[in-house]
Amino acid sequence: MNEHRERRLRTRWRQAARTAVAAAASVGIAVLAIGFTAGAAQATASPADRGTSNVSLAAAPVSRVAAGDLHTCAIRTDGTLWCWGNNFYGQLGDGTNTNRTGPVRIGDATTWARIDAGSSNTCAVRTDGTLWCWGGNSNGQLGDGTTTRRNSPVRVGDATTWASVSTGANHTCAIRTNGTLWCWGLNRHAQLGVGTSPYVSTTPVQVGTATTWASVTTGYAHTCATRTDRTLWCWGSSSDGQLGLGIREYRGTPTQVGTATWNGVTAGYVHTCAVRTDGTLWCWGENGYGQVGGGTGFQTTPLQVGTATSWARVEASIDSSCATRTDGSLWCWGNNGSGQLGDGTTTHRSTPTRVGTGTTWADSFAVSYHACAARTDGSLWCWGDNSFGQLGDGTTTNRPTPTQVALPG
Predict the structure, then answer these.
(1) Where does the RCC1-like domain start and stop, copy by copy (predicted)?
(2) Residue 128 and residue 314: Cα distance in Å, rounded?
(3) Per-residue model confidence (pLDDT) at position 14
(4) What phi, psi does 15 have (nearest 5°)?
């Protein structure tokens, strides 16, 4: 397992992604949001949400949101699914490859329950326990037994017991209601948790025999998960210490991270963050943009972020991290090149920086080169990179502070 090769591959991937973003911005790409009849608008905001316009428009409430590299999807409280942004690989799922600057409804189902977005693909669980994926599929990450792109949702097998799903750059993992864990896609760095073989799996493979898995998260080439006893386990690449095991080499099967108890975990591309049951926040792995929230250089073991004991939930992706506290405040840190930290600047932050002064942020939020978050009133707000309309405001203008997204209906 060649970790130096991985770093070269990762560097090329990031350069390609950033080139695409830069190219889109430089030519001022504008796309017609076909089907977005209501028109995205920016709602009236308090000083806590500086940077939004003073146009007011009622928006349908949102229960879940997911952010891919250049696209966004959200589930409304009525169970409908909406996506927008880049659609080159069909990751919006609307049956086309047309980019959208505003939300478009995906199919006519009203039973969507959970959603996650990878680099160029999307997966979601319905209330009947079925799992559906769409978008890029070059490494079988859609789990449908092929490597064919899909521009509309395709069902993953025939199981009706899926509970949650996480999809990363090239692999996907999901937990069933019986507590079993399943992964599929690229296994170059053993990120599927079944050793180094197969190299690619286009259908779900079970990770061990445990029936106590509670949550799972996928990064660029690593995976972490918690069990019902609140222990934390990671596997795959640890080129920059992202497994938290004090090593910089891979692990082919789940390996426990320390002995602490955890409430949840999230994987960035090459870093990881998690909240402990005592409300403290810990991060580790690559730290080039300060995404670990402290220390200098990569961290191979969990590093506590500040001293607060009121952290509620954390999300990470690419080189940025965001977390909420129990008081409803939202904090972000790491890469801020596109304004994805929401603090009104494009300055990278190595410690948590508060997003406005609001105290009504809910537990559904996501961060990538852009970020989106729901509030307790069900309103959805996005900020950061908008080169493909992934902020859903009807434009391709970057926003360094939260801007409300109005879903039609």
Answers:
(1) 55-356
(2) 28
(3) 52
(4) -60, -40
Is 135 within 8 Å of 121 (Cβ atoms)?
yes
Name the residue with higher pLDDT: 33 or 16: 16
Q: Are 273 and 283 in contact, with CB atoms under 8 Å apart?
A: yes
What digits encode the pLDDT tens for the residues 211-259?
Answer: 999 999 999 999 999 999 999 999 999 999 999 999 999 999 999 999 9
Q: How many domains does the chain have?
A: 1
| Rounded distance between C-alpha atoms, residue 357 and residue 362, angstroms | 14
Residue 27, H or E segment: helix 3-27
Report pLDDT digits (tens) over 92-134. Answer: 999 999 999 999 999 999 999 999 999 999 999 999 999 999 9
123 touches 185 (CB < 8 A): no
Supply φ then ψ for residue 316, to 5 degrees: -140, 150
* Cβ–Cβ < 8 Å for 163, 207: no
Q: What is the pLDDT of residues 316-367, one digit of tens each?
A: 999 999 999 999 999 999 999 999 999 999 999 999 999 999 999 999 999 9
Does residue 13 surpass a pLDDT of 70?
Answer: no
Separation of alpha carbons 65 and 405, rounded Å: 12
Task: Report residue 394 as tokens.
Answer: 């009807």
d(CA 352, CA 9) in angstroms, rounded, equals 29
**The tokens of 137 are what?**
């599929």
Rounded CA gap, 180 and 53, in Å?
46
Please give the Cα distance from 183 to 175 (Å, whole number).
Answer: 9
Which SS3 state, helix, strand or coil, does residue 8 take? helix
Token pair for 284:
């580790």
Q: How far apart are CA 306 and CA 66, in angstroms?
A: 27
Domain around 297? 3-405
pLDDT at 18: 46
Would you say 342 and 292 are in contact if contact means Cβ atoms under 8 Å apart?
no
Cβ atoms of 184 and 135 closer than 8 Å = no
| Length of the chain as a residue count | 409
Tokens describing residue 64: 């879940």
**CATH number for position 146:** 2.130.10.30
